[in-house]
Design brief:
By secondary structure, the protein is α/β, with parallel strands linked by helices. It has helices at residues 5-8, 16-26, 41-52, 72-80, 88-100, 107-110, 148-166, 184-190, 192-197, 224-242, 254-264, 279-285, 303-308, 314-319, 325-339, 386-410, and strands at residues 2-3, 36-37, 57-61, 84-86, 114-116, 120-122, 131-136, 139-144, 171-180, 202-209, 212-221, 246-249, 269-273, 294-299, 343-349, 364-370, 375-381. A hairpin with a 2-residue loop joins strand 7 (131-136) and strand 8 (139-144). The longest helix is centred in the C-terminal third of the chain and has 25 residues, at 386-410. This is CinA-like protein.
Length: 411
């Protein structure tokens, strides 16, 4: 449960529950619901009651700051029919925190050491808002600060070890198969026989994301080695059916996979981007060590840059336009020559939301990959949404690059 108006107003993105869900799964605790509540005591009380009617463990983040809008502690006191009192250990830690920084501690800061009498104090090593652990009728309520790095430290150092002594959770393990170039419904029909034959303790989920579909297998049991063996077996069993669309597993991203391929082949890459505006280069350079294979990029947004830097003939721009197979081919070849790289990839299109025409509506994108032996192009027909089109184009041009590398290797 996240507490705070700022989450409901959309002013900040809730990353806490995603991280917590992953960590709970890793220790065998299955998250069943996520709730966001504003800074309203009645709403928080109602959400607490509803949650504890359903689950054995409730983890709360947010509302533990020193200001008046931080009401989580007071509301928990009301819920557990108790009152606040100064926790001397928490007070000493907060005092030391301010002394180390040479800052005065205000009364508001002091009140952060006031905790419900019936909670167990969880020391926050990285901030001034303590964590709290409550036990009620065999169930656990944990309240943590909403600041992500403080929450993560408390979860790792204080909460997860206690949970494993309180509960005896089963082991939960995931295996993710990453596919591209096949739709979710088509894929589901293709592997229906396999899904229906999975053991009861292994479940399959379909996770579509920007032109990709991730197949997540979740196995639950008591023997970690057996679960790992079963997941490997089921993965191997379906591969003959879906292998042509599989590009990676688990945490592999497309940019990670192509980076490994390039390093394996001692190859280099450069990019020429128009409609993606450098987003492909951003994805490539988000991987540590990308400098070993990625040389640089030309963001050729203007036609003058396409002509003067990448060598696109004016005649091609006049006859075929910037969004064309001819233009994007020359862009890929031009940047490959300019940067002296093994491969060059390029994007040019109408990202939207305006700028389209009857012949080339919004979402018309051309991508290209120039390799040592050939230049391969592909036309995409995408959406009317600019951000989605940029994401999809980056995914598809990296997929095209991966296929080009594999073709070169096979020759």
């Amino acid at each position: 449960m996240t507490i705070g108006d700022e989450i409901l107003f959309g002013q900040i993105t809730d990353t806490n529950t995603q991280w917590i869900g992953t960590e709970l799964t890793n220790v065998g605790i299955r998250a069943t619901r996520k709730t966001s509540v504003g800074d309203n005591a009645e709403d928080i009380l109602a959400a607490l009651g509803e949650a504890l009617a359903r689950v054995d463990l409730l983890i709360i983040t947010g509302g533990l700051g020193p200001t008046k809008d931080d009401i989580t502690k007071h509301t928990l006191c009301k819920f557990f029919d108790t009152e606040l009192e100064i926790n001397e250990d928490a007070l000493q830690l907060i005092s030391d925190f301010f002394n180390r920084r040479g800052r005065p501690m205000t009364e508001l800061n002091r009140q952060q050491a006031a905790l419900p009498k019936n909670c167990t104090y969880l020391q926050n090593d990285w901030g001034t808002a303590p964590g709290m652990w409550f036990e009620i009728d065999g169930k656990i309520v944990v309240s943590l600060p909403g600041v992500p790095f403080e929450m993560k430290n408390l979860m790792t150092q204080r909460v997860l070890p206690r949970l494993l002594t309180f509960f005896k959770p089963p082991i939960i393990r995931h295996k993710v198969i990453r596919t591209i170039g096949i739709g979710e419904s088509t894929l589901a029909e293709m592997i229906e026989f396999w899904e229906d034959s999975l053991p009861q303790h292994i479940r399959l989920a379909y996770l579509p994301h920007f032109g990709q579909v991730r197949l997540r297998l979740t196995a639950t049991g008591d023997d970690e080695n057996q679960l790992a063996s079963e997941l490997a077996y089921e993965t191997e069993r379906i591969m003959p059916v879906i292998k042509k669309w599989v590009y990676g597993y688990d945490h592999d991203e497309m940019e990670t996979v192509v980076g490994k391929l390039l390093m394996t082949q001692h190859a280099t890459l450069s990019t020429a981007e128009s409609c993606t505006g450098g987003f492909v280069a951003h994805k490539l350079t988000s991987i540590p060590g990308a400098s070993r294979y990625f040389t640089g990029s030309v963001v050729a947004y203007d036609n003058d840059v396409k002509m003067n830097t990448l060598g696109v003939p004016m005649a091609d721009l006049l006859d075929y336009g910037a969004v064309s197979e001819q233009t994007v081919s020359t862009m890929a070849e031009g940047v490959r020559k300019l940067m002296h790289t093994t491969y060059g990839i390029a994007t040019s299109g109408v990202a939207g939301p305006d700028g389209g025409s009857p012949e080339k509506p919004v979402g018309t994108i051309w991508i290209a990959c120039a390799s040592p032996s050939r230049t391969t192009t592909r036309m995409l027909t995408l959406t009317k949404h600019r951000a989605v089109n940029i994401e999809l184009t980056a995914t598809y041009v990296l997929d095209l690059l991966m296929k080009c590398i594999l073709e070169e290797v096979a020759q």
